[in-house]
Amino acid sequence: MAKMKIKKNDLVQVIAGKDKGLQGRVIAVYTETDRVLVEGVNRITKHTRAGSDRGVNTGGIQVQEAPIHVSNVMVVDPETKKPTRVRTRVETEEREGRTKTVRSRVAVRSGKDL
């Protein structure tokens, strides 16, 4: 399983599927299934039963987001507002005789930090 380059609160754009072209923030990342939950994307209707547990006593139809596969979304470049690939830049800093490595995520399209 490869490392996921999409993190929570990233702005992503859907590049494949029924919601192609939509942009939204990542709500949750599920690394074990390679899926992400994106705000306003892949909305489904869920039928809930009326019950008295946990303070929920009204049933009905709810519309909510469902997870989408991570290969169907790309991170949006902060400068151009278009989808881009993500690269990791590794920098070394020297402080008080010690070397410290700093990793930062970079948009390939513009070179800006994410």
Short précis:
The protein has 114 residues and is mainly beta. It has strands at 11-14, 23-30, 35-38, 43-48, 60-65, 68-69, 73-76, 83-84, 86-95, 98-107.
Describe the structure.
This protein is an all-beta fold and 114 residues long. It folds into 2 domains: 1-76, SH3 type barrels (Roll); 79-114, no CATH class. 0% of the residues lie in helices and 49% in strands. It contains no helices and 10 strands. The strands form 3 sheets. A 6-stranded antiparallel sheet has the order 6-3-2-1-7-8, with no helix packed on it. Strands 4-5 form a two-stranded antiparallel sheet. The radius of gyration is 19 Å and the shape is elongated. The protein starts with 10 loop residues before the first strand and ends in a 7-residue tail after the last strand. 18% of the residues are buried. The mean pLDDT is 90.
What would the keywords be for this entry?
mainly beta; elongated; 0% helix; two-stranded antiparallel ribbon; single chain; six-stranded antiparallel β-sheet; 114 residues; SH3 type barrels
Topology:
Elements (H helix, E strand, L loop, with lengths): L10 E4 L8 E8 L4 E4 L4 E6 L11 E6 L2 E2 L3 E4 L6 E2 L1 E10 L2 E10 L7
Antiparallel strand pairs: 1-2, 1-7, 2-3, 3-6, 4-5, 7-8, 9-10
